[in-house]
Every structure is written in structure tokens, then in C-alpha cells.
Amino acid sequence: MECKEKLKKYQEKIKEYNILDFFRADAKRVKNYSIHFNDIYFDYSKNYINKDILNLLMECANQNHLQDKIKAMFTGEKINITENRAVLHIALRNFSKNPIFVDGVDVMPKVREVLQKMQQFVEKVHSGEWLGFTGKKITDVVNIGIGGSHLGPAMVTKALINYKVKGINMHFVSNIDADDISSVFKKINAETTLFIIASKTFTTLETMTNAHTARNWFLSQNASENDIQKHFVALSTNKSACRDFGIPSENMFEFWNWVGGRYSLWSAIGLSIALAIGWTNFEELLHGAYEIDRHFEHAPLNENIPVIYALIGYWYRNFWNYSANAVIPYSNELATLPEFLQQLDMESNGKYVDIDGNIVNYPTGQLIWGEAGTNSQHSFFQYLHQGTDIIPVDFIGFISAFQEVGEHHKLLLSNMIAQSEALMIGKSANQVETELQSQGLSQAQIEKIKQHKVFRGNRPSNIFLLEKLTPRALGKIISIFEHKVFVQGVLWNVNSFDQWGVELGKQLATKVYNEINSVEVLNHDNSTNYIIDMIRNKK
Ligand code: F6P
Q1: Between the CA of residue 444 and those of 428, 431, 436, 454, what are the distances in Å?
Q2: What span, in angstroms and rounded, lies between the C-alpha atoms of 159 and 282?
Q3: How far apart are alpha carbons 126 and 136 in whole angstroms?
Q4: CA-to-CA distance for 449 and 429, rounded, in angstroms?
Q5: What is the per-residue pLDDT across 64-77, written as a single tens digit (0 to 9) for each?
Q6: Distance from residue 144's CA to the centre of ligand 1 (Å)
């Protein structure tokens, strides 16, 4: 029998079990279902899993040649088959001396060269050697990008706010809605502002529109075309488009087509991060990711954090039919991590065609969502505890705060621990009844409200606990998620590295835009025609 058949049978067998039964049956459950790796503690004991299930999940991973595929990625094979590209974000943080070849050429010298160029630039900006067109020091940096050229840098910069370099204010513009960039113009002075145009392709409509608006705004502030080189830099794979925009090659920081957009914060796309937190801290971020890369590549599957994490997600998605996964960082700084993970996970694995071009007959991908704790406890946690759907939750916490203020941090962590426990243990009708009796309620009153206060519990969660939210720790967290997405892509047999699903909307938007600006007869469906007409007539 195939591993999938066996897992289906297993699910049937244990679907009425309670996670607490697993704890009762195994006094060493926590030790057996957790991993310590350097300063990361990953507790996956509060799940519907046992050794048999994990073994079957690994069997599925082996059937899909997981280890060969990990090797293929790390050695630069062109695993992104629809674009005929290697997938080498791991090369961007490869601190070993080992070469990595693409088409017979070692990519590492170029990677190091760009990192060095970035470092020199960052240090010049910070020291004041790089000056604006009126001889003033740069105080504001505006990153213009979208998707992978925005979410990673914006998330990391916010997460590492405690490491912020003094005297540099960061701004991120992504939306084509003019309100986004206009609100930034109100806060900056052209003489002291550096614009970073971040776009892998340098063709993305939103980014190019915002870039041209920024350029026009800059020129309207008593600056000339010649001054552009002091205030605009580009991060891209498209040299000629950068030149056409007016950015000279010295101001261009290159990366390569084997860096996927959503995996690009480690590349030149990370320039805004380095400007925000300084070069040493940026390198620390890369080192954190490198540590996990080594772990992912070499640890046995049953001690491998990204692998186990991915297998648990696959188990829930494909055998329990749970289509969503909440990620809740108990850290205000990490509030935008779920947003970043949405692109990472959903753009990678939201695919119904497998790598061989077949329509799959099983679910793939999942809805990733979340928000920082404790805020989220007061918004959607009701749904997690008593909603009709079960959503596995992944908690992320840090033992120490960046700066301890009174009891805040202990209270924050207490909430995280309590939520994970509450999801699992729930509250029985008997407990509710005893509680209400002790409050002096009559039996009639108790019967009326009892069921509303019952928590079924038995809802799974994982906990990631790290020492502190440092650049290195954040590098590790992101790398765990990247590799988890990779493993799940292998299990689902999809290409996690293309994103054709976003193309159609882009093409149609261009057509609609041209039609809004013309009087030609519309031949869409009636709904689309009517709305275009309303916009044309502004009513
Ligand atoms: O949304 C599609 C997408 O291609 C993403 O994959 C990418 O991160 C984003 O657009 C931005 O692309 P670029 O960096 O080329 O501007």
C-alpha cells in the first residue's frame, strides 16, 4: 500500500483521538516531538502525530525523492523547469568556500562582488561620504518595489527596528495607488533622499509607475537630470532597462534570474535592509539563513526542522483537509511576517498543475494568514477556538525582549503559551458547569449559557521559541519558512518557483487601462463593460 493510502487509513483511525491522548500515552512526548537546534526550540508535540504517522510522511517525502531534490537545489540544477532556471537563494548566503555552478560557471565570485559593492555603498551613505545634490547627507531612503522586491525588505526592516542605524529614515512604497507615494513625498526632502528602485524585471507596472513619479517629483524640487545619479539607485537583473531609466551602471546592484522574487531579500534587493540596520547586521541576517541552510541540507529528515514542519502542514492539508494555517508571532516587530509569508507560501505552492503538467487531484498550497499576538487574540482568535473549521496555528516567540520593560515580556509569552495550551485542552461542559455554579448561577441560567462557554479543544499548534529577535535569529526563521515551502512543493510535486497565476490579471489590466483612455466599443462581459464605462464617464 502506498504511503498516502496508509496515511488516509491512519487519519480515519485517529480522527476521534484527542491530542491529549498522545501525551497520556507517552511521558516523553515533548522530548520525542521537539527539536533543539542551536538557539531554536521547535515544539511540535501538540499535533495529531505519532512516530508511525511521521514515518509514513517521511515515506511520502522519500517517494517524491526529497533528498535528491534538496541536493538538486543546492547544486544549481534548473529545478524551475517552466522558466528553465536554477533556484539559488542559498548561494546568496553561502559563507562556505564551496563553488556553486550554473551552466558550468561558479556564481559565487559574482555574489561576493555584489555584496562588496553593496557594503561599500552602505558605508558611504552612513558615513556621509555619499552626498546629495546640494552637498547634504542622506537622511531618508525610499524603497520602491512590490511583491518580493518590497515585502521581505519591509518586513525585515520593521522586525529589526531595534537595530536601526541612527539618522536614516526608511520608507517603503509599493502600491500603484498614488496615496502611497504621495504620503512619502510629504515626509521627505529631495536634497537628502535616496530612492531605491527595486525590481527584478524592471518592468513591473506598479514599480515603474512609482519610479517615474518619484523621478518627476525629484526633478520638480530644483534638481536636474545630472543630479539623478546622486539620488537614484536600482536593484535589478535588467541592466539595460536600468540604463534606459537613467541609472548608471555604478548605481546598479545586480542579481540574477536564479533568484526568485519572493526569495530575494538576501540579494541586492536587501540593500534597503542594509541601509536600515547597517552592514554587519545585514551579514548576520545572512549568517542566520546560512545556519539553517546547512541544517536543512545535512540533518537527517527526522531531526530536520523545515522538513518536520512541512510534513505536519502536508498531513493537515492533504489528510485532514485543513486549508488554512495561521502564523502568529508574539512580537510586535514581526507583525508583518504573515504578510511576507503569504507571498512566499501562496505564490510558491498555490498551483493546481504539477511539475509534469498534469492537473492534480489533491489539494496543494494553503491560506497563510496571521497577525502579531496579543493583538490577534482580540480579533480572530475567537474563530480559532470556537469556529467550525480547524486552523493549525504556528506560534513564534522569543525568550528575551530587546529591552525588558516591567512585566511586559513575561506577560506576552504567558499569552502565547496559554493560547497554545487552550487550543489543545479546551474546556469541557463539566468544567464550565462547576465554574458557573461557583459564581452562584442557577441551574436554569447555567443550562442557558453553558454550551457557549465550552471549548472543544484538540486544536493543533506548533511553537517556535528563540532566544531573541536578532538579525541572525530572523535569518533563521525566514530560511525555515523558505525550506518548508520547498519541501511541501516537493510533496505536492509542483514547481514552487514560478508564478504564472499572476500574469493574466496583469495583461487584462493593461487592456482595461487602454480602454478607459479611449472611446472604443467595449466587448467584455456586461459587468466589466459597465464598470469601465462608469470610470470613463466618471460616474
Ligand atoms: O506578483 C508577481 C511578481 O512577479 C512577484 O513574483 C514579484 O516578486 C513581484 O511581481 C515584483 O516583481 P519585480 O521584482 O520584477 O518588480
Answers
A1: 18, 17, 11, 17
A2: 13
A3: 12
A4: 11
A5: 999 999 999 999 99
A6: 12
